[in-house]
Amino acid sequence: MSVSLTVMTFNLHEDQPEDSPNSWEKRRDLCISVITSYSPIILCTQQGVKSQLDYLQQGLPGYDQFGISRKGPQDSSDEHCTIFYDKEKVELIEGGTFWLSESPSVPGSTSWGSEVPCIATWAISFFIQLSILILYYMKFQLLTLLPLVFIENHCIVNTNMDEFSPRARRRSALLTWQHIASLPPSLPVVYCGGFNTQKESTTGRFLLGRSREHGVVGDMRDVWPNARVRKNVSLIRTYHGFKGDKQGALEFLKLIFRALCLCWDRQTQDLHIDWILFRGRSLIPALCKVANDNIDGYYPSSHYPIFAEFLLPRTVRLIEPPSHTQEEN
C-alpha cells in the first residue's frame, strides 16, 4: 500500500506594468486556477513579492505559507522563495532561510558575482495522510473499516539561483547541497526551484553526482527522467517568456533536427531551468509534468510550473480478525 506526496514548483514572475497583457492583475486568477487544479501538497514559488503571495494566500485558504524576502525579514517587499503547504496534510516542524553567499546568515548578502541576493528556503515537516483500509473476512462475513494514518518526515528546499553568474550558481549549489548533506541520511529531501541553468551545466552535473565541486559530489536525483510517467515531453524549455507552446514547438523542432544530426541521448534533450530534484529511497517518482495550462494563449507566468508525484510506500500489517466462539454451521 502506498500514499503519494505531490509537489509543484512555480516561478510566479515579478509583476509587470498595469498596461502589460502579462501584469499580475490579469493573470493572478489563472495562477490560482492552475494551482487548484493540481492541488499540490507542497507548492514552492519563486520571484513572488508580498502582494502576489498575499493574493495567493487569500485564494488558497487550505494552505499555509513559510518564507521571507531575499532582503531579510525586515523588508518584505522584495522577492521570496515561499513554501506553501496543505495545512490539513502537512505540519511544519522547523524551517529557515539562508543566503546563497559566503555569509549565508547575513540577509541580503551576495557573493561570487551575483547581481542580486539569492536565497534558499527550507522546511522540515510531517506529511500526514489518513486512509481507510477495508478488510473483508470471508469466513465470518465481516466487513471492517480500519483507519490508517501515514506519517512521513521530509525536508523541502526551495531556491532561485542567480541568473547571470555561472560561478554563483555552482557555489550556490554546493552551499545548498552541504545543507542537505548535513541532514539525517534517512530524511527524504525534495529540492526544487529556479536554477537558471540546464541540467547538463556544471551546476546540474554537480548536484546530480556527475562532476565535482570543491572536491565533493552531489547525490540528488532528477524527477523528470526518473518518473514512471512524463507528460508534455515536447515542451523542452520551462521558460517561455509568456509565449507558451508556440515557443516550445519551435524549440522542439530545432532540437529534433540537431538530435538527428548529433545522435544526442534522449535523456539530455530537455532544457529545463526549473527543476524538482530529490534524495531518499522512500521517494518513488511516479509522475512529472510540465504544466502548460493556459486560457486562449494567456499563461499564468513566463515559466511553466513543474508538477511531480512521489509514491511513499508503507508496509501495512493487517489486524487479525476477531475471535468467535460460535461454531460455523
Automatic annotation (TrEMBL):
Domain of life of the organism encoding this protein: Eukaryota
Segments passing through the bilayer: none
SUPFAM superfamilies (UniProt xref): DNase I-like
GO MF, one example: 3'-5'-RNA exonuclease activity
One Pfam family of this chain: Exo_endo_phos
Record InterPro entries: CCR4/nocturin_mRNA_transcr, Endo/exonu/phosph_ase_sf, Endo/exonuclease/phosphatase
Domain (Endonuclease/exonuclease/phosphatase): residue spans on this chain: 8-282
Coiled coil regions in record: none
Protein's name in the database: Endonuclease/exonuclease/phosphatase domain-containing protein
Organism name: Hibiscus trionum
Organism lineage: Eukaryota, Viridiplantae, Streptophyta, Embryophyta, Tracheophyta
